[in-house]
Design a protein that fits this description.
- The chain is an alpha/beta fold.
- The protein has 18 helices and 12 strands.
- It has an 8-stranded mixed beta sheet, with helices on both faces. Strands 1-2 form a two-stranded antiparallel sheet. It has a two-stranded antiparallel ribbon with strand order 9-10.
- Helix 6 packs antiparallel against helix 15.
């Protein structure tokens, strides 16, 4: 064995800090580390006194460690996470020349590969492992976090799997079904209710299998009992139908503009109303799901989600925040542009406000109404507010639905392990204008020319599954037709509904409260 093999057996992120600590007080570090640093200093002193140099194989081991850290720290800048645009360029790149290595070293075996779980690996294999982990459909930002155990947890979680999902056939079919529901539902609304506002999720349909994955995994592996979800308009209707199981005929009735049973309700409220639903999953576990009502003020719902979650954790779960999980779905322009987000984030770890960590999902359209992201924020990412509380961020290509679900599983496990916030930046696009009544080609002609040619994520995933033999075209056509038929049945039934009905949000909570009419609220002049 190479006498310098010890170089790759430890967490190199902590070595520099330990060496500084050792330099100030040798007794402040473990005896094994004292021996390590003594040997290093002895070797360095001996070579320098002889006018020589440290052996090249040793210096290159450290250069490879520098390369590994380069990928961990900056790999997210060089990912394949944008489905419809070229990424911006950043310097310096991750080329090995920038780390003092060359193509001649590619076939050389380095012990430093142990740091990412590769024993006696060639440099080319180390690079391939790092590229697959940090520069494909998932970009990870976490190197700014200060707790070594948290950093180590994330590194091991991602590097062990190379950030590559390994779902079985049934899991892949489930993901495809949820994605198909999202795509078919939006297409159906587009053809049945032409010109009506729906704030389409098209381009970000992976949100539906993502939320579904949180619910399933949280109940199956962590015994969660309840969820509190807040979101604005984008994708809300699909979430209501495909996640919260709102009766589809009720939604269609609302599109028809029918009066409500409750005469005090007026206007276009289908994007604002909340819903509480109890559902039993395939694993026979029951859970309560709450979609919080939201006005047309984007991130206003954030603190409401946290307040409801904290109240329920204290009142219903005796302070056990593992039983309830708050989820907030953001827009990219809103999360970077509204101060409310900073306030909620900043308070997330305070004793009086903590909810045990929130899973934040950004439906990133790369555009705010008509504003290009380059003109909408100063930060590199819309999620840079996460750094306020040293929360990790996973940037994911919304076209790669398996990567999305994989990232969600990491996010959920992180939240349950460390009880703190984590952000998922779901990088997609907005197929139509802000509310289907706008023409985006007027302000973004190049982007929307690319979007018009781009296949939807369901078709991309279906092609992949067919190519690998997981499904055939018959299976795909069957699940599409099955959901279309359901929508048609519900559409016909909606015609029989005379008045729309509002289903109470958190109805059980308000049962003991008496609802007062306008007359009782007015103060008499007598």
């Amino acid at each position: 064995m190479d006498k310098f093999s010890f170089v790759g057996t430890s967490d190199v992120n902590a070595i520099e800090q330990l060496f500084l600590q050792y330099s100030q007080d040798a007794n402040s570090v473990d005896a094994s580390w004292r021996d390590f640093f003594k040997g290093f200093e002895f070797a360095r002193t001996s070579y320098e006194s002889d006018g020589g140099a440290i052996p090249e194989n040793v210096t290159k081991e450290f250069k490879v460690i520098g390369l590994i850290n380069g990928y961990r720290q900056r790999g997210h800048l060089f990912t394949k996470t944008n489905p419809v645009r070229q990424r911006r360029t950043y310097d310096p790149t991750l080329d090995i020349q920038n780390f003092g290595l060359s193509d001649k070293d590619l076939e050389t075996v380095f012990q430093a590969g142990n740091e990412i779980g590769l024993v006696n690996a060639k440099l080319k294999d180390i690079i391939a492992h790092l590229e697959r982990t940090y520069c494909q459909s998932i970009g990870a930002e976490y190197s700014y976090m200060r707790e070594p155990k948290v950093v180590k947890w994330l590194q091991e979680r991602m590097e062990k799997t190379q950030n590559t999902p390994a779902f079985n056939k049934e899991e892949k079919k489930t993901i495809l079904k949820k994605l198909t529901q999202a795509v078919v539902f939006e297409n159906y609304l587009h053809t049945k209710f032409v010109g009506q506002k729906r704030f389409s999720l098209e381009g970000g349909e992976a949100l539906i299998p993502a939320i579904s994955a949180i619910i399933w995994n949280a109940t199956e592996y962590f015994d969660a009992k309840e969820f509190v979800l807040g979101m604005a308009h984008r994708g809300r209707l699909s979430t209501l139908v495909n996640i919260f199981r709102k009766p589809i005929r009720d939604l269609f009735s609302e599109f028809e503009g029918k009066d409500f049973e409750d005469e005090s309700i007026d206007g276009d409220v289908k994007y604002h109303l909340g819903v509480t639903n109890k559902k039993t999953l395939k694993n026979n576990k029951e859970l309560t799901m709450n979609l919080v009502p939201n006005p047309s003020h984007l991130e206003t719902v954030g603190p409401i989600v946290e307040g409801i979650a904290r109240a329920k954790i204290d009142k219903d779960y005796n302070g056990d925040n593992s039983k309830l999980i708050p989820i907030i779905v953001h827009g990219d322009a809103a999360i970077s542009g509204q101060g409310l987000v900073y306030e909620v984030t900043q308070m997330s770890q305070l004793n009086g406000y903590s909810t045990g960590g929130t899973i934040h999902i950004v439906v990133n359209n790369q555009i705010g109404f008509t504003t290009n992201y380059l003109d909408g924020r100063s930060s590199t990412y819309c999620t840079d507010v996460a750094k306020v509380t040293l929360s990790p961020v996973l940037h994911v290509n919304a076209d790669d639905v398996e990567a999305v679900v994989h990232a969600i599983e990491i996010a959920l496990a992180f939240r349950m392990e460390f009880k703190r916030d984590i952000f998922i930046d779901l990088l997609g696009y907005r197929k139509y204008g802000h509310n289907e009544g706008d023409e985006p080609r007027f302000t973004q002609p190049k982007l929307y020319k690319a979007i018009a040619k781009h296949p939807n994520p369901r078709d991309l995933y279906a092609q992949k599954l067919i190519a690998e033999g997981t499904i055939d075209t018959t299976f795909l056509n069957n699940i599409i037709e099955e959901f279309k038929n359901l929508l048609e049945v519900e559409y016909e039934l909606s015609k029989e509904v005379e008045k729309s009905k509002v289903r109470e949000f958190m109805e059980e909570t308000w049962q003991s409260f008496t609802r007062r009419g306008d007359d009782a609220m007015l103060i008499s002049e007598d």
